[in-house]
Design brief:
This protein has about 300 residues and is α+β, with helices and mostly antiparallel strands. It has eight helices and nine strands. About 20% of the residues are buried.
Length: about 300
Amino acid sequence: MKRVILNIASAPLPETVAAGDELEVQLAPYGDFPGVLGGRTVRQRCDRAAFERLAGNFSGEVLVDFEHKAELGGDTEAAAWVQALRVDPAKGLMATFRFTDKGAEAVANRRLRFLSPVWELDAGGRPGRLISVGLTNKPNLPVRPILNRAPDTEPQPQGTPSMEEEKTPGAAPETRARLIEILGLGPDADDAAILQAAETLAKAYAEAQEAALAAEAERAAEENKERIANRDAFKRLYVSNREAVCATLACLKDPAPAPARVVCNAASARRPAPAADPLAGCRTPEERCAAIEQGKW
């Protein structure tokens, strides 16, 4: 089963765009970001390798809709179409949009100003294929504006740091207190202690995820033991690309059943009685030798 995640949202859009315009925007930066998948929090690992794979898997136009309505079962009216993806060494994943009349109007009139990519995640949390993009006003990925940046005094959407926040080291007091509480630290914990505890927690979470996937691979190997020739190689493939292995298994036939074992339950089908021992009456070695010489054996 594919793991699909909605990222509400990412980069602010320019304020001047018309129908038919093609514009390159930043779709996602480098880094690890939280997301929600099936009611649980997962880690999205947006590194160079993931973005290269996303760009390599791009095979045609991808829908840009309004507020993810297409993914949430609503209408599929297009605000734009993704024409191309590329990887920028500094900015991350870039996308070229071609806007429709309604998408251009929504952006030009500042009704919707941010982007939210929808992609599949592999077992390691890396995006592998872009499914769609939504125009939205609820940011999640902290992506910089590309063009026509609003003044720094304007309230910024959640997830986009202001210039003042960037110049001030450390978290806000309420955020810091909450982090200390979650991590079980003392009230006088400094930034280094908070960071170390957070890294330890993240490592434990990653190890738990890896252990769960390894256990799942073991179960899959046991369930399909009649269909695979190399159990260890199968488990390694399962851990590295679970979706591909599951899809392959779904395409295979079940192994042929073993030939039936026929049992005869007729009354006459009894085990023959053992033959009598011709030397049973011989009580001494001499008597046995004599019986053998006489041909009784």
